[in-house]
Amino acid sequence: MSTSRVLLGFLILLFCVAPSLSLYEDQVGLADWHQKYIGKVKQAVFHTQKAGRKRVVVSTEENVVASLDLRRGDIFWRHVLGENDEIDQIDVALGKYVVTLSSEGGILRAWNLPDGQMVWETFLQGSVHSKSLLSVQASAKMEKDSLILVFGKGFLHGISSIDGDILWRKEFHGESLEIQKIFQPVDSDIVYAVGLVGTSEFHIYQISAKNGDILKHNSAVFPNGFYGEPSFVTNDMLVALDATRSSVILISFTSGDISFHQTYVVDFGQEFSGTATILPSKTVGFFAVKVDSTVLLMRVKGGNKLELAEKIGDPAVISDALFLSDSQQAFVTVQQDESTIHLTVKLDNDLRSGLLKESIKMDHQRGLIQKVFINNYVRTDRSHGFRALVVMEDHSLHLVQQGDIVWSREDGLASIIDMTTSELPVQKDGVSVAKVEHNLFEWLKGHVLKLKGTLMLASSDDIVELQGMRLKNSERNKMTRDHNGFRKLLIVLTKAGKILALHTGDGRVVWSLLLPYLRQSGACQHPFGLNIYQWQVPHHHALDENPSILVVGRCGTDTDAPGIFSIIDSYTGKERKSLRLAHSIAQVIPLPFTDSSEQRLHLIVDTEKRAHLYPRSREALGDFLHEISNIYWYSVEADKGIIRGHSLRGNCFLEVADDYCFDSQELWSIVFPSESEKIAAAVTKKLNEVVHTQAKVSADEDVMYKYISKNMLFVATVAPKASDDIGSVTPEEAWLVAYLIDVVTGRILHRVTHMGAQGPIHAVLSENWVVYHYFNLRAHRYEMSVIEIYDQSRADNKDFWRLVLGKHNLTSPISSYSRPEVAVKSQTYFFTHSVKTMAVTSTAKGITTKQLLIGTIGSQVLALDKRYLDPRRSLNPSQAEKEEGIIPLTDSLPIIPQSYVTHSLQVEGLRRIVTIPAKLESTTLVFTYGVDLFFTRIAPSRTYDSLTEDFNYALLLLTIIVLLIAIFVTWVLSERKDLRDKWR
């Protein structure tokens, strides 16, 4: 065989090899990062056994149960329950099981304390909505079965702690009876259930712990009625407030006999004349009442008398009791000033002198203290030491011990509600830049290790060392922008009202700011964050002024509450301006205009449908009035099944004239029949989406023009019966209707019905296509459908001479009021996964092939090429279609394991995927958040416009040197040969 044939065969083999999408082991973590969180802690249980004293089990508002290391705060194990599986209570049974009650008393689980493996799970049936209660009977012997009492859904259950079997079940079917407390005294066979009928009738049940039979039932009426829930003081006494909240009621039920003892709050001092509130705490013989700005620590004395034990300034938090012995208990009170928390440990028999007093410096951006949990340990001198687990207003968690913060967790990042991005400053004098030591020896060593890795000669230690050097010397952590646009700030807003800026390099917190600081100035008592927007991005004078963001919120949780604005510097996190609005906030509309200082104009629509312009400046008003006739918006009232279109008509008619307030008018409305359709999803395009070209050339050289409109809205409706969980209806009772609507005119551009389909529905709209995911009841599989819409009014622009002579309409303006001639192509495919959320990649110029990013039920992110969702796919594509890149039709969409953006990691509680274009056209930045955070960058069409970061420059340099040496040697040999030939 000739050399040319061998070379030709090698080239053919090379082009037939499919490119790999996998990562090397030493590449993971270089372009991505993953952070684990748990959320705001609701309840904490310290394990008291010797083997478990270094850990604490917690439950959180994000439906997480986790075991934390008390030394460093790391997660030993963690379980994230479902979105609708809220954790009600946790406890420890038999000294080795963590017991969790969730789903409003519907599911009881036991987890192995050391490793978190689920031991058993019990489903508790019931249809009555009621309060859920959990009580675990203490057992002296770990191997002895103990009773777990659970009240939920109208039933009281006695459950075995060993295997979760339901031993007995008792129904409380009273229509208005609400069980408030259940408990079983130690070494007693009687279970007590305490409840209320209405607000004044008190009931006490004595129930056999062996079979659940009611042994005794007593009731009594308190004429003035109760306020709120009663709180236990002892095993036979509760405390509650009367209906006026001016007196404290002691409810005693010794031996089942009920008696009431009323004490007025003013009896403890004439200054205590306000309404009272009982603070939640579990301390035997004590309870706390908050009156005005003072917390009163009350002691029950002599059976039915109250004594004021101590007055504590507000804000203050009191922990539950910690039993040091059978006859002694300790608890902790925490007070707080601007930057210090004062912690005092008290004994129940000596309140005057605190057992331990400590002051700990706390960042004022953490807010007020919310909860405290106390635990003790034995020092070397056999005395008691104490540690406290502190939950702050920003949802952060801190362990305090010996007057210092041992560790902190930024668990507010588990509850992000909105985010935006900001460019970093350009590199200049005065800008902080991360300095990395990088000498010649390290440079040479790094390239030697790279070369060894390329030649497959590197050991495992070499790979670890190489990865460490890459992370140390990486430029991704600098606080300046790079020419590829990879380094940015991710600015997030959490449920706690805290704004944090995260660096895309490693996810560290650059700065943070707590929104509730507004209450300190008296502007707002209960600020509540809603959304975050770009406010000012000074492109033309980026070296002179920092960009800023706008945080929009409410002064309270009510929709009619006044709105609040906060403008924050993107680089420093300092507030530039705060404002309490005179109106509510129902909708925020960022406008595509800026003033001379490059502040973006925003339109705020209140609950009375009036629109308010911000910033309130004459220049902004002039620009706005120039474009007022082109401003339209829509609103979706999903509960009523109505979509409305709005525009502006003139200034508001108010008692005090306001040039920045405008009345709106309704242009159109679409009312979906409530008996047949219910709005399940409404999706529009990203405001900053870039479309590279309107034309699309097909395989037969035909030109199709995309219908590109920023006013297009996708709406999906389902049958009202099919709005519940999958399988709740038959295929004949279920359907899904998909609409494409122009929001300026309200015209329905396209409508399609899927019979036998049911939600939940997830959709993404981009360019001229929409992809949506749903469940097919007939096929018992998930499906994904795609709709592409094309502009037929420009279909005549295919003649070459018409284009040359300018007789075309490509440059004519597009108006929503001219009826569009559109053509639609659609296709449906099976998909094997349930979906949590969907997004689409976005690049700087819109040239790169798009990918769908799908958040799967396994809390991972899958990248799916849009070509798989091309509606023009056919079973036998022609050769021209194959050259165009059309893939042969299959009934299911492929799932390639190497296409998981998150690799083998899970983003627990995944809620949203955000894509951010980089300056490099081939690359998209991806930020995924839920309970966890994950960031990476992907190249849907590979990095065709750059060399990768791990490109082996040393090998390239070595190759060039070898080639130069070979050229020189060859030249010398050739010269010698020529000389010899001439001498012959």
Automatic annotation (TrEMBL):
Subcellular location field: Endoplasmic reticulum membrane
Residues annotated as signal peptide: 1-22
GO cellular component: EMC complex
Keyword field contains Transmembrane helix: yes
PANTHER family named in the record: ER MEMBRANE PROTEIN COMPLEX SUBUNIT 1
UniProt subunit comment: Component of the ER membrane protein complex (EMC).
Segments passing through the bilayer: 951-974
GO biological process, one term: protein folding in endoplasmic reticulum
Keywords: Endoplasmic reticulum, Glycoprotein, Membrane, Signal, Transmembrane, Transmembrane helix
The name this protein goes by in its record: ER membrane protein complex subunit 1
Membrane topology listed for this record: Single-pass type I membrane protein
Family per record: Belongs to the EMC1 family.
Ranges where the EMC1 first beta-propeller domain occurs: 23-411
Residue ranges constituting the ER membrane protein complex subunit 1 C-terminal domain according to the UniProt record: 766-983
Chief site of localization: endoplasmic reticulum
InterPro entries named among the record's database cross-references: Beta-prop_EMC1_1st (IPR058545), EMC1 (IPR026895), EMC1_C (IPR011678), Quinoprotein_ADH-like_sf (IPR011047), WD40/YVTN_repeat-like_dom_sf (IPR015943)
Keyword Transmembrane helix: yes
